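Session log. Operator J.P. requested a structure for one protein chain; no other inputs attached. Running the standard single-chain path with token output.
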Amino acid sequence: MTLLTGSALPFALGIATVMASPALAAQDLQDRPVTPPPSEGAAPTDPDQVRFSAEQLEYDIDADIVTATGEVRMIREGERLRADKVTWNRKTGKVLATGNIAVTNPQGDIAYGDQIELTDSLKDGVVDNMLVVLEQGGRLAAERGTRQQDGTVNLERAAYTPCAVETSEGCPKEPSWKITAVRVTYRPDRERVYFNGAKLNLFGLPTIPLPRLSAPVGPGGDSGFLTPDIRLDRVNGVEVAVPYYWRLAPNKGLTVTPHVFTAVLPMMQAQYEELNTLGAFRITGYATASRRSDDLNTLNPTDTSQAFRGYLDAVGRYQFSPEWSLSGSMRITTDRTFLRRYDISRDDRLRTTASLEHIDANSYFALTGWYVETLRVNDPQGQQPIALPELDYRRRFDDGLLGGKFEMQLNTLAISRTAGQDTQRAFASLRWDLRRLTNWGQEVTFTAYGRADAYNANNIATTPLVYQGLAGFQGRGIGALAVDVKWPFVGELWGGSQRFTPRVQIVASPQIRNIEIPNEDARAVDLEDSNLFALNRFPGYDRFEDSTRITYGAQWALTLPGFTFDTIVGQSFRLNDRPTILYPGTGLSDRWSDIVGRTELRFRDFVSLTHRFRLDKDSFAVRRNEIDATIGSRTTYVQAGYLRLDRNIFTSIEDLQDREELRLAGRVQFARFWSAFGSTVIDLTDRAEDALSLSNGFDPIRHRLGVQYEDDCLRLGFTWRRDYVNTGDARAGNSFLLTLAFTNLGR
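Structure written below.
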């Protein structure tokens, strides 16, 4: 039987506002054995009408009572109720729903209860043994809930959790944490839920009393305290950081974090972030006063007097149209050890950039500038480049004759230094590529390249001779021709496929002015698999390889179900005996180059291995040996990285000297939610590899060990970290970190 009545829906007005809260739960948080009302069935068009159906409908004329029993369904404006029995006493105005009650609202929240009672105003009422499962996650319930005329909802002896209450096998379990309270009040006018007499229950035990607590309602955040951090280290002592978030608007907010230490003065941290229709930006600042060490070379440095110390970190991007965008970042600090001492960052250089870009299908334009701040020992700040501006424009178009592609590039760059060389550069280039496939399956690519450069350099005396070039204005022309042939062979092997691809490339270029030109962006050159077949094996524009050479190599790839193997090896030979500007140690200084290669192996998501190498062409000594490997699953794995450089490059040419380093990391899940983790970096360099090295062949740089519990709504961890290197007032020693984070709480 289906009826329409002019009464408003009691359960919707009495419960829907409670269901909007993401910060409550029920004393009995387990699922109820009740099927929610189905979503099919149209609601009445009149908002004051209720459509309901039942197996049986009775009306007592004398008592003026309407009783619906057996699978009662009620629908009003998207609100749906299911109950075993609904009774309406028209004389007293009392409406009562009982038995296996389930209610859904248009947002998808589901409320369960044993009994719902309302007055005939249908705006205030009482719910017994209530459970609400929120569509956005989390659940709330109470022994009793009441709703007042103004929409305020009061819950008695209530609890809330966002955690799962069932195991993956569907068995009931206690949530990792919940909040229980004597009284919970929801104020829709303030969009907040208030707890009175609350306790935070962790793993079923009441651990933290929270006499008064409030939380925002809905998906957006609100002002309030966030999850604190607790840390202990040798230099600063015990650190307690308690962030507070101000919600300035739905699209902007400010987080202020005081860091209080037992051994030094407090530090203030502030972060402002904003999002609008064009883009977003974030700016973070730190400020404190402490003693710092200006002498970074002394093992036991003396501290200076108290000094202001701080750091600014900002990043932003705005997209004005599908083609135009503006992006930038800023990283500036007061001194070289502040970031390490306060465990903010371990970067050894900070870069501030800004870039205006236009990108479409066939062109690219960028107006860019950057500033570099060094944090390295013995690296003078006055020698760091300031690029303002760099202009780069590229356009690609068809040749209109042979089917090839032209790429035109215009570039200009101005670099200045406060105590060093100033360089200005401009060039225009044109590159033509034609790719063809022969009848035998060879892939042949013809390339022609031409470029005209103009340079100006001043104050060159502060730059190493090999990089400074000549002072004043200099010009240069560059030209190169190349042909590149690949011949892939594909076949079956071991139930999979294999591909063997020999490759030969010939590049011809006349003698080019290189030494007379200042070198700003092509200093770190090293032969490897990524640049073996490059037209110019220098990394930047300021140097161009002026030789006629043949490069040859081969690539073999094997693909099996769940398994891939890919390896490449190659070498080059200079066809002329013209003196080269490639210095010893790069692998390219002689006519025959060193042998380079790369091997990659993957087995499903369990094994990933990459090996890069460079072998001396004469002695087959390993000049570069680099291994990166990951073995394991997402929960239990081992990561290893090894690097050894044996290049014998002069320190006056390149500051990266021979090194040997080992990096290890791993995680072991020893229980369903428990895991142990660790990582370390070890310097394996000895005096035989680097005469200036202080390492004895096995010097740990830092390590980290910890244990962590993490489930769907709680993360609890303890980490021990030790640093072995002193850098000014960033001293070696131990630090300990305690992390505790709750889903939907402190965010």
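Operator note: The CA atoms of residues 476 and 727 lie 44 Å apart.
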